[in-house]
Amino acid sequence: MTEHALPRHAAFPTSRLEDAEGEGLNPTANRTMGEIITARFSRRDLLRGALATTAIAATLGPVALMSAGDAKAEGPASRFDFTEVEAGVDETHHVASGYDADVLLRWGDPLFADSPAFNPRNQTPEAQARQFGYNNDYVGFIPLNGSSEHGLLVVNHEYTNEHLMFPGIVSLSEKADEKNPEKKIPILAIKDADRTRVDIEMAAHGGTVVEIRKVEGKWQVVRDGALNRRITAGTEMELTGPAAGHLRLQTAADPSGRRVFGTINNCAGGVTPWGTYIMAEENIHGYFTGKLPEGHREAANYKRMGIPEGTYQWGRFHERFDVSKAPNEPNRFGWVVEVDVMDPNSVPKKRTALGRFKHEGAESIVSKDGRVVFYLGDDERFDYVYKFVTKDRFVEGDRAANMRLLDEGTLFVAKFGEDGTMEWLPLVHGQGKLTAENGFKTQADVLIETRRAADLLGATPMDRPEDVEPNATNGRVYVMLTNNTRRKEEQVDAANPRAKNAFGHIIEIHEEGGDFAATKGRWEVLLKCGDPSVAEVGATFSSETTKNGWFGMPDNCSVDTEGRLWVSTDGNSPKGTGRTDGLWAVETEGAARGTSKLFFRVPVGAEMCGPLLLPDMQTAFVAVQHPGDGGEDWEGFGRLSYYEDLSTRWPDFHPDMPTRPSVVAITRQGGGRIA
Length: 675
Hints:
The chain is mainly beta. The protein contains 12 helices and 33 strands. A hairpin with a 5-residue loop joins strand 12 (266-271) and strand 13 (277-281). The two termini are 26 Å apart.
């Protein structure tokens, strides 16, 4: 999830903007997920504590899940054998007993033999382009020569926090609290950017491809790796697929509509079955400023995407990010990007067939008939869950043919039925309402305005769909729904994802016949998140879940080779939940279904991203994003001195602690399987 950079000149009581994903830009009256769930089960039965047998089976699975202290689950204990971490808040990370959590890469670490050493007080765009980027999110691994101990780590760099990156750019003042005039509230504001700072930010975006090797049980970066690469907001890319070359993608700088520079706000992603790296462009709206010319063709399109939002000042120095000067440029972002990691000089491809929206990720799996299915979330309040099914089939060993798979196929959007059924609606020009009469002249228009096309088909608005992960072991699909505090009371009841849903939930999809390419299926709620000890929260963790095991705000997830689900979170805070974000192991099968255990927790202010368990189950990689951001909520943090000058609080960024965005490698002490 993106927590945007802070607004310039704006006072902010906390540096993590609660409403980073906006008010919710879906203008339709399509039935929300809350309304659908509400129609399925009665409020009265839930309040009486007597869920009907059908409700238990459809919503909670084979085990009655706990709502504020219901009966304990019976049967075998969790399959996860680690000793749980204690939830809490402090300045460092914690991993389960018996495991090591080693920082492998941090923002600014050199990636090449000629990379300069990191110097936070003397940053340059040229140096950053040769160093590990900022705010690492997705983490993937592509083995070299089939090895589980030697391969390429691929990492997305989602966005930048200037107030954490550049010491001395935050000004401090105070104002009186409106409710308590005797109390003074600190006001922190970021100074205007200059060209150099903007260019450093642009170089810190994108992604990293870096060779890593396990030596005597510990992972190391291979700095002279021949395949090492940085991808930035200035890297040349090619637009491919049905929208490539379309008039709406053409600009003065690129009349062809096929050549674009850079990728931005890459959140989650994926690795394809043929070994390429997928980068998903999410919150692109914050990078654009200016005003469209009166009556411009893209006005409604950009309004649906929240463009321009103007968080960043890039448009002051690069005209392509100013919509008054380059009105079509935003249409060239919001896509899924494919990178051939085996050629460090290859041109990344923006694959338009997978649609344009705020992509959270793009995890894939091969279906029964050999076609490849990609699951996609649109991370905004009241937006949708998608999947893309390739036209052609994956051919083992034919990399050249597989590299063309993402240019043809069908994009679908999910519609969830109140009876527990669901259908995947095809977003195909000429079908249903996707016609010229509704503004869609070609398939390119459908893909450029994917959100509006999904609106017209009656897709189900969701509570911020983030990672969507298929499970090859049990044939199911898990949808992380982080939260939606804009949901109104009349849309939900106590049985279901809640009004002002602060904690989120997880949906489990059962594709028809266990076929990931199916167009129909069933769904159920795996978990409603939050503190089960607070009855009004309505959380549904198993009664075997301890006080450390519950979580809120599910964001990224991973399914290991044994089919077990791991969930990372974004949004836990000292004041909100009394704990930091982390990585939880969640049972999805048998009597332990709904049981969750805390395996790893991040420093104060950080978001937990990644996570990735290697196929041999000997290593877990996690990404710690923006540690310290919002840490002023924790009294031990030292708010004013921290924001006034980062190095005042933590001289030299404490190299022994993960106080920069970092990728952490987790291994079992003495070797062996994770959990």
